[in-house]
Amino acid sequence: MKATVRVEGLEKRYGLTPALRGVSFELTPGEVCVLLGPNGSGKTTLLKVLATLVRPDRGVVEVGGLDLRRHGRLVRGIIGFSGHQTYLYEELTVAENLRFYGRMYRVADLDRRIREVAEVFGLNDRLNTRVRALSRGFQQRTALARALLHDPPVLLLDEPTTGLDVEGRCRLAALLGELRARGRTVLFSSHAFELERAWADRALVLSAGRLVFDRPASDLPANVLNLGGAHARV
């Protein structure tokens, strides 16, 4: 099966500090993958590289068969990204935020699509609420709805459960199952691996910028966040 995401020998430095060191992996359609690692391991940098927000120093990165360096604009059209920041306009309502981003992506039948993603995340009764008046959890739901709005084949989520209550987590888990069934590719980072590895088919673990684990999520060891350079990638 052709990969929707291909990363080979990816390296990124911030000044003299290496953030990613020779990372290589592939993701295929219908695969939901959790990205794990302690703070500073490179998770956010990797996701931002894939989202075209950070430029890699070396290596090959392809999304949907498109080289990220040469076709960044096209890549941005086939990914959905939700990061630590919500990237929402606080003075606009939920619906206005979604409509703004929907127009950027030229989403067809936009009002219908807004209602659909609002239903997925339980936002229907908050569509006319300004973002600044929402709780952190509902701001996160709105950011996730925005990432999903244009129905991207690749979804990149950095700590997507941040601020979510039990209902929000259940809605996200149900969404991941639906995306898997529809052949979408999802890569999401997490700290709470015991809770969220059940959502994933596969797990990648970063340690000090190196990929030290690439196996089915069910094979994750109890000491996953302590894996280091002494553990070969298997």
Description:
The chain has one domain (5-226): P-loop containing nucleotide triphosphate hydrolases (Rossmann fold). It has helices at residues 43-50, 72-78, 94-104, 110-120, 136-148, 166-181, 193-196, and strands spanning 5-14, 17-27, 32-36, 58-63, 66-67, 79-82, 154-157, 185-189, 202-207, 210-216. Strand 1 (5-14) and strand 2 form a beta hairpin. 30% of the residues lie in helices and 26% in strands. The chain is globular, with a radius of gyration of 17 Å. Helix 4 (110-120) crosses helix 5 (136-148). With 234 residues, it is α/β, with parallel strands linked by helices. The chain has 7 helices and 10 strands.
Give the arrangement of secondary structure elements.
Blueprint: E1 5-14, E2 17-27, E3 32-36, H1 43-50, E4 58-63, E5 66-67, H2 72-78, E6 79-82, H3 94-104, H4 110-120, H5 136-148, E7 154-157, H6 166-181, E8 185-189, H7 193-196, E9 202-207, E10 210-216
Parallel strand pairs: 3-8, 3-9, 6-7, 7-8
Antiparallel strand pairs: 1-2, 1-4, 4-5, 9-10
Helix pairs in contact: 4-5
